[in-house]
Amino acid sequence: MPKTAFIFTFTLLLIVSFLACKKNSEPTNPGKKVSLNFPSYFPRNYSIPEHNQLTDKRIELGKQLFFDTNLSKDKTISCASCHIPEFAFSDPNKTVSDGVNGGKTTRNTPMIFNAVYQNAFFLDGRAKTLEAQALGPLTHPQEMGMTEKEIVDVVKSNPEYKKKFKECYGEVNIKNICAAIASFERTIISTTSPFDRDMQGDTTALTPAQKRGRALFFSFKIGCQKCHNGPNLTNREFMNIGLEENYKDNGLYEITKKEQDKGKFITPSLRNIALTPPYMHDGRFKTLEEVIDFYATGGKEHPNKAGQMSSFTITPAQKADLIAFLHSLTDDQFKPKK
């Protein structure tokens, strides 16, 4: 065969092989597109990656993975072990959560509802997408303890998963596994609390105490709204609130290595806050009363302490009203089943 003919034939085979591989990696039936529904007072500034548009089948696949303990090293931990649906997808009454082989996580478990509005994940913001966040607990040695290869092998060994991944994403790989989990997490939404009903014009949704507490929350005197604002009650900024003069865990600094970031953690949403004790990144406060008492002090001195932090006085009756308002942020769908 002439050299030019050989080169042509070889090139043609490469092209055919590439097209065949590409076709085999395309999803065959990803399902029906799903839209997220938020009340009118929520902004519409969230985005969903083009490569991971929401569909009913992708969401259902992600849900299966979220609850699957086989994705952990000792087959005892799933995403839902620390993000418990009945407690606003948090791990209540635990300073830190349990990991594989008797290990412990390093920080208090954050809530994950309305995550579609977030632009940074984990308390130190080290993941910029939900897809990147999904990989973190799976491979963290003190959480689920797997390697990427082990995760893929477990999923590939399940015929049902293989079929569903073929339909939803085309193939089983770590990118698509994280994409599926992220799809489910984007549908964990909280918008039906008494606070929400009040926002939609129901003047009977809040009790008199909750209305007084709301006035305090948004007052200049208490100033909670300086950081906890908008429909998700968070500015999503990284802030040092003066928990310590010298932090053992420096939060954002561990990622950026910038001095001005020492002691900064992302401001959490206050939605469903009454369901998720203890509080702060290290779970140091067991009750909402303790949290309010801390804020009343204005925090400890630290060069990075946020300017929004200032001391205030509050009476026992006012504190009770403020806590009553915080309870109005509880979404009934996340309450423990009796």
Anisotropy-based shape: globular
The CATH class of the largest domain, by name, is: Mainly Alpha
CATH architecture of the largest domain: Orthogonal Bundle
For the biggest β-sheet, the strand order reads: 1-2
Task: Return the CATH topology of the largest domain.
Answer: Cytochrome Bc1 Complex, Chain D, domain 2
**Main sheet properties:** 2 strands, antiparallel
Given as residue ranges, the uncertain stretches (5+ residues, pLDDT < 50) are: 10-22
Helices and strands, with pairings:
Blueprint: H1 3-24, H2 56-66, H3 79-82, H4 130-139, H5 148-156, H6 159-168, H7 174-185, H8 194-199, H9 208-217, E1 238-239, H10 253-256, E2 265-266, H11 288-297, H12 316-327
Concise overview:
This protein folds into two domains: 23-185, Cytochrome c-like domain (Cytochrome Bc1 Complex, Chain D, domain 2); 194-334, Cytochrome Bc1 Complex, Chain D, domain 2, CATH 1.10.760.10. It starts with a helix and ends in an 11-residue tail after the last helix. Helices cover 36% and strands 1% of the residues.
How would you explain this protein's 3D organization?
With 338 residues, the chain is an all-alpha fold. It has two domains: 23-185, Cytochrome Bc1 Complex, Chain D, domain 2 (Orthogonal Bundle); 194-334, Cytochrome c-like domain (Cytochrome Bc1 Complex, Chain D, domain 2, Orthogonal Bundle), CATH 1.10.760.10. The chain is built from twelve helices and two strands. The chain has helices at residues 3-24, 56-66, 79-82, 130-139, 148-156, 159-168, 174-185, 194-199, 208-217, 253-256, 288-297, 316-327, and strands at 238-239, 265-266. It has a two-stranded antiparallel sheet. 33% of the residues are buried.
